[in-house]
Amino acid sequence: LAKKAQTRWKSISINDRANICLSIVDNMLSMKQDIAEEICWQMGRPIRYCEGEVNGFAERARHMINIAEKKLGVIDCNDQPGFNRYILREPLGLVLSIVPWNYPYLTAVNSIIPAIMAGNAVIMKPSTQTPLSAERITQATQQAGLPPGVFQTLYLDHPATESLIKDKQFNFVCFTGSVSGGIKVSEAASHEFLGLGLGLELGGKDPAYVCPDANLQTSVESLVDGAFFNSGQSCCGIERIYVHTKIYDQFVEKFVDLVNQYQLGDPSKPDTTLGPMVNAQAAGKVRQQINEAVAQGAIALIDESNFPASKESSAYLAPQVLVNVNHSMSVMRDESFGPVVGIMPVESDEEAIELMNDSDYGLTASVWTTDEARAINIGNQLETGTFFMNRCDYLDPALAWTGVKHTGRGCTLSEIGYEQLTRPKSFHLKQ
Questions:
Q1: Which runs of consecutive H residues, i.e. helices, occur in 167-279?
Q2: Stretch 1-18: mean pLDDT
Q3: pLDDT at 142 over 90
Q4: What torsion do the CA atoms of 332, 320, 269, 223 make, to the nearest 10 degrees?
Q5: What pLDDT is recorded for position 409?
Q6: What's the pLDDT band for 45 if we cut at 50, 70, 90?
Q7: What percent of the chain has pLDDT over 90?
Q8: Would you say residue 195 has pLDDT above 90?
Q9: N or C: lower Cβ tally within 10 Å for the chain?
Q10: What is the distance, to the nearest Å, from the Cα of residue 248 to the centroid of all Cα atoms in its chain?
Q11: Which H or E run contains 362?
Q12: CA distances (Å), 400 to each of 138, 196, 403, 430, in order?
């Protein structure tokens, strides 16, 4: 069904595709309150923040829709007399989008809307933690009049997904998830088939560096939010912070004070600002990482008793700030994906750069300074997909969303994102 639908869909004009996709966005926004409640009880994000995911879905989708005509248009190469030469951007065919639970709509939109705009058909495999996301997107596409088969969903376990990829039915697989999951997807994608494209957004251990000239209040407020939003379960969340010694003590004091203002509790209550982790097992892994760091000499600055909801063997875990940390500790080296951050003092920009690059991951990195030239100089030396100055934990749809090292490969969003979802087809006509 999907392949037949895609053959018809690719012949529809980009303008007509855009109208349908814009209607999909409008339909998603009309369901925003219901979607927010479902996100809250499926994965524990505080209800006060959940509508923001639908707004982000709309922002990213509309940007990619608006740039599609320019990016997907014919590339004219007619500069040689006697010849008609041009390049078309052909859709790949059938795209499989494997979507995680932590941002089930924001990650889905990165591949789904651009793929459909490019003339592909899409099959979405949602996480079993957030299956209703697929139902809502399906509902929105049906109400918008998207032809049957252009977008479908499948509910699969890991072995079934691996088998489906090996079956050579897809032309591209877009996966967001763990490094181990990405390796399995990559192995399945290369199984006796070289024609399958692959986009992987995997783990992260995103760093921040606070320079001595940084606006202290702004950097504290932004980095606390960057570290603990969604209980730290963000691929581009801040997991390690390096602060120049000149302002280190002040920064840590203000940082800890602000973290202690979080309200950990029932995510369905409007006054809750920090919800549970996705499950007790995930919380247990973060708790173990914290305990190991403390046993190795780290100092925990947050008194867990200030967060009564935090309970051993439960999904509720108090936020934690660790100092006296170093890169021999797992908490500064391995992905945490939870409400914990380590803070280290540094003597110079050079030391900060060395430590920020000392990682197997490279999704985003941020520098906090009032000197743009300084920031650019540092950014040019960092091994990362996105570099921020005075911002973090954000995705701008006009910019390429990509990473290096174990963070993955490929790109979504921006004009470059369309290159992943199409192939060039050259026409060389002698007159």
A1: 179-189, 216-228, 248-259
A2: 96
A3: yes
A4: -60
A5: 93
A6: very high
A7: 95
A8: no
A9: C
A10: 30
A11: strand 361-362
A12: 26, 21, 9, 37
What is the C-alpha separation between 317 and 428, in angstroms, rounded?
62
Q: What is the pLDDT of residue 189?
A: 87
Sheet holding 83-91, edge to edge: 75-76, 83-91, 422-430
pLDDT digits 0-9 by tens, 227-269: 999 999 999 999 999 999 999 999 999 999 999 999 999 999 9
| Catalytic, out of 50, 53, 174, 201 | 201
Cα–Cα distance, 230 to 45 (Å, whole number): 6
Active-site residue (options: 21, 50, 235, 411): 235
135 labelled catalytic: no
Cβ atoms of 323 and 252 within 8 Å: the answer is yes
Q: Counting Cβ atoms within 10 Å, is residue 317 exposed (0-12), middle (13-18) or buried (19+)?
A: buried
Mean pLDDT of 290-313: 97
Asked if the model's pLDDT at residue 414 lies above 90, the reply is yes
Residue 194 CB partners (closer than 8 Å, separation 6+): none
- Averaged pLDDT for residues 7-28: 98
Q: What pLDDT is recorded for position 168?
A: 85
Element (H, E) at 415: helix 414-420
Q: Which amino acid is at 151?
A: F
Residue 175 phi, psi (nearest 5)? -120, 130
40 annotated active-site: no
Average pLDDT, the chain: 96
> Do 45 and 39 form a contact (C-beta atoms < 8 A)?
yes
Classify the phi-psi angles of 390: left when phi > 0, otherwise alpha if psi is within -120 to 50, otherwise beta. left
What percentage of the chain's residues is helix, strand, coil (to nearest 5)? 40, 20, 35
Q: Are strands 206-210 and 364-368 parallel, antiparallel or unpaired?
A: parallel
The size of the chain, in residues, is 431
Q: Which two tokens stand for residue 331?
A: 């908490």
| Closest to 207 (Cα-Cα) out of 407, 369, 392 | 392
Mean pLDDT of 321-340: 98
Structure-token match 């996105």, residue found = 386
d(CA 290, CA 310): 14
The H or E element containing residue 91 is strand 83-91
Contacts of 380 (CB under 8 A, 6+ apart): none
Compute the distance between CA of residue 189 and CA of residue 68 in angstroms, rounded to an integer. 27
Name the amino acid, one letter, at 301: L
State how far the Cα of 241 lies from the Cα of 261, in Å rounded to an integer: 20
Q: Which two tokens stand for residue 284?
A: 């247990």
